[in-house]
Amino acid sequence: MGYNIKYLVSSGFDLWSQPCVESGTVSSGIGGGYIEVEPGFQMISVPVIYGYWSSITHEHVHDGVTVATVGNYIVDQIEDIYGANAATMVEVFNTIIGGHGSYFNFVPGVTDYASTHNFQLGYFDFGANSYEYIGFFIKSIHPIVFTIKWGDI
Amino acid sequence: MAVNITCTGNIFDNVGTMFTGSDVYYQIFFYKVNAASSSSTWSNTRSSILGQYNFNLADSDLLTTAGSASSGDRVVVVFWTGVTIDRNSDYSFIDLWGAFEIILGSGPGMLSQDVYVNDVSVTTNLDPILSWSLPTTGYVNTSYTATNTSYDTHSFTISGTTMYHWYSRYGQIINAINQINNSDYYWGDDTFDLDVSGIANKTHQWSVAGTYEVNLVVEDNCNATVTGTKYIDVKWHPPSPDIIMIPSNPYPNEPVLFQWDGVDTDNTILYIDWVINDSGVYGNTNTTVSGARDDVIAHLDGLGTSWCGTLASGGAFTNPGSHVINIAYHWYDGFDWHHDTYNKSFIQELITGPTVDFTQVPTKAAMANVVKFINNSSNIDRVGLGLPDCNEYDWTFTYDDTSIDYLDKLYSYELEVMATSTNSQVELCAWWSDGWDTHRTCVYKDVVFATTVSVTPNDCYYDLYILGTSGNGSVTGYSWTISSGTTCSGSWTEIWSSPIDIDQQEKSICFTSVGWYNITGYIYGTGDTLCDNYVLYIDDVCPTLSGVVTCSGITDVIWNGTGVLDLGGDWVHSGYGTEQFYAMRTGTNGLDATGMVNNNNILFYKAGGVNVLAYDVLVVWINLLNWSVISELSVAFQTLVDDKWTTSLNLSTYINVTLFNEWQRAVIPLYQFELSSNIVHKLRFTSHDNIGVYLDDISFGVGVVVPIGLYSVAAEEIGEKTQQGREESISIDVDVVDLKPYAKLDLGGLRPNMKSRENVPSLVSTPVPTKL
User: Fold this and answer.
1) What are the boundaries of each domain within chain A?
2) Taking the model in full, what pTM does it have?
3) Chain-chain contact of A112 with B50 (C-beta, under 8 angstroms)
């Protein structure tokens, strides 16, 4: 079973990811890492299928049940860690998922978490019988680099 | 970087409640403004997600990630709810709708160049907005337009963003239901125009004056209607005034009528007040009267007038000339009474008078012959005054200031008179009436005479005389030309001409060579210049000596002896010589100056002197008794102003000193004395060596000399007579021969056969017509 990263077909984007191992079960053991978010557009990928940020424990919870999205996995993390409205730091998350003609546009503070535009960070492609992770743009409107983390860190 | 622009927001209904599901359709229209941007395009119809719209311009149904968009490009987003995914469906399928627009780079909801967030709303149909105009006043039977500019485009704001009910935007139908469907016009006179498509204008006219309530109902595509009301005051047309006089150009004996001749389309004039002004030196007969519009107003105050053959009868106006006719017309426009005024001037013309004229027969009168004058006046209908015996034409013939009247003659009368003077005039006058006043119109003409040149030999010179007038009978001057030729028919070479002056009617000339001469005289005036000529052969010339050719007409005697037969001669003789009868040439005495030795002086003195400017020559008759080859008798004048003696001239130069005991005339040009002043008072003859002579008939003379020398000379000017300023001086080549004027054969006054008019100079060949 391989680990694929879906990315925008446009060339030249900065795709940053860290190799990892997905157990598909619990949070422990999936690895993890940090992503430095530069001002402006940046293409990243968070290779997680399930999980969310817990503002109680102030860490990711990989329960194997909750589908990880940009909302619950990244936006909640930013607001909890930095104590700020994510909309003041990230303007938009964009991606195109294979098979869809339209963008998924998640605008912090605007897009409903229940909306499909709160797209998943990865999913299991039954046709390909593989985990696929979403490459997406994050546009930072924060003037300095800030860090988000993923996985077991 | 490829296009990646996100637009999103919440969608609210018409009461501000956010939708929560997918029950709002929306469609995006990208409108290309920048040349480098992707083409304008519509997206597919989309549905809201949890009451939100969310799209990216890079979506595959818009610009795609390969597309391009820049600041200034437009993005119109149309929202609606209902049972149709077609935004342009009938209103029965659409419940709420609205649209808004993003201007890329600066538009509403812009978070950055990449993200635009706008909460939007939709609402129910909004009533059309009524906008129209109609004149507030007008005239009956005149079309007026209700200008309908109503529309069904609206803007509204719910939850922050200004939304629109657009019908079209950037050439695209945004929502077809946002449109006026039709209009109904109710004109207030029980007429109407219903279901006028769209927002079209409509015209209407009313046939009766009054205030009309006009209603306009506009209906949009959702069956919503709005009614507007306006009022128009429709009036009767104002009259356009004019009046006429019948007849328009009345004779003095003809009454006239006045009538309304204006335009009163709606028959609104109730009555008219007339004031016919007829005041002047003949009386005041103004007429003031009122009547219905079409009444005929007569003016019968003229007394009329009579003229030969016509009795007076009542006319129109008491006074001729211009008359101002004032009217006040009273009319009702359906709302108010009006009392307007108008005036116009009419002319009572005077009768025009005759053009008085007559002709002369023959056209050039001959002296001492009968000449007739024939009346050919025109426009003579009104000539003649008084009844029953008409006083018509008066003739007056004047010659040399003597006038003879021939009064009250008929038109057919012909005046016949004897032509006895070129200073003759004829006047013809016509009596006539202009309808009010009598007039006497006259024409006055000089009698036109034929031009006749006569040449009369007088001793060795010829007296020229011209008689006649210019082409219209006037005379302002005369002139002469003399041409020489080799035959009686020329060719002619002009050798002398005189100045043009009234004094040139008579002229004395002499010739020094035999040959043919053509003498032409001209008469000038305000009419055409006329001429006559006289051709003669000269075979006898004046006797001359020493190359000086002289001749003169005697005009003023200095000394000619004394006695009852002598004329003038009032200069006092002194010095040498005695007055003796045997020494006379003519008259009673001459001066015996025999026995003179060297330096004897014969003197003549005139107290106060004589101005010689008017003379050309000094003439001295002399008879030689004793003269030798060394003898000489010099002559000189003394001027009065400075007592200076002039140049002394030798008398031998002017006479034949070989001819004894015969009288001969010496003609000495005055200019040869080189006078320092024109006034002389002494004449002196001084002897040189022993001589004996008789002198008589010493005089000043006026005249010209025409020296002819082998046809090679022209003319010579003698003296300083100012009238002869045009005469030319020439060198003299004398040919001394006997002079015998051919005209001597015709001394009876008849002209010789050779007289010809065929060589009249071009000066008179094309006379200019002169108006009387």
Assistant:
1) 3-151
2) 0.54
3) yes
